[in-house]
Amino acid sequence: MEPQKEAGTPRDPVARPPATSRCETPNEEERREGGTAPPAAVLDEESDGASADGLWELPVEPAERRPECSRCSRPQKVCLCPFLPLHPLHISTHLYIIQHPAEESKVLRTVPLLAACLPQDKCKVKIGRRFSEESCS
What we know:
Elements: H1 26-33, H2 40-46, E1 95-99, H3 110-117, E2 123-127
Parallel strand pairs: 1-2
């Protein structure tokens, strides 16, 4: 068999007019084309706080949270309960989960999933940054 030849030809560089540059601003284009850029004083007047004054008076709507599943604590649209065991798993040990407060709001929410799979008396979740011996008992 003969080696296949590449289809296509090498690309020629794109010819640009001599005065054109890729990173020109609109003001530079206007000057090149013979126009004039607006004076800086006009731009400053337009960008004063006049257009933003009305923003402070707009009503703020509270964000609505998506409905949450009571068992796995995930949004109902992505509830994982159909994939969890119907009845808690029987384990012979007690499981203590220490969770940092910042992890409580993470998207994966693995601690509530684990807690939903185990009996409530066998799985204890403690949320906090520092614990003393008295607070864990």
